[in-house]
Amino acid sequence: MQLFGHPFSSYTQKALTALYENHTPFEFMMLSPEHPDIYADFAQRWPIRRFPLLVEGERQVMEATCVIEYLDAHHPGAIRFIPQDADAAIEVRMLDRFFDNYVHAQLQRIVDDALRRNDADRDPYGVDEARARLDTAYAWLDQRMANREWAAMDAFSLADCAAAPALFYADWAHRIGDQFANVHAYRQRLLARPSFARCVEGGRPYRPLFPLGAPDRD
Ligand SMILES: N[C@@H](CCC(=O)N[C@@H](CS)C(=O)NCC(=O)O)C(=O)O
Hints:
Elements: E1 2-5, H1 10-21, E2 27-30, H2 36-45, E3 53-56, E4 59-62, H3 64-74, H4 86-115, H5 124-144, H6 158-173, H7 181-192, H8 194-203
Parallel strand pairs: 1-2
Antiparallel strand pairs: 1-3, 3-4
Helix pairs in contact: 1-3, 1-6, 1-8, 4-5, 4-6
Bound molecules: glutathione.
Glutathione binds at residues 9-11, 49-51, 63-65.
């Protein structure tokens, strides 16, 4: 199996967390200017050019959630990312969507805006909207996590793979308020999880790339 991605990319980290959880063997295909051939292969395989992308034989899987679904179906390990029970699986997928749409996508709007070179291309209205949505998401999550260790079904799952990089970077882009103690505690549990801690270490050398300035913590 090959995983195309970059160690500092949040969605790559989502897939890597699942791979590391079960010690699943794979080859990392580094997408960077130093490896133009790998990037050309990736771009030819997936013209949308969003990573990660998983390749196994003739099969290729786009979208981090689907990569994890694929791993769970074809390379199952001790940690099952999707519960067998249909209702439990719905809850896990629901939380995965929450983290992708209402945390991760909002943080990406803020980061993407900061990456724009020209002030004329900036979208302050959109950034304010993203920040407000993050505050709403933090508040909802804080209540949900009041008596929970993991996001869904009392076990580490796809939802936590989604949560880890989303909350890690969201806090950098739009600080999680001190009043959301349950979200902070959950983020710390995710950072302490060996699989995600490995992702954070892998991305550490690239922190100068963070356009808003990576804070001196984590
Ligand atoms: N919906 C995709 C999002 C992937 C995504 O946005 N990846 C970012 C890196 S974290 C990317 O490919 N950025 C490159 C670009 O926008 O050109 C998923 O879930 O995998």
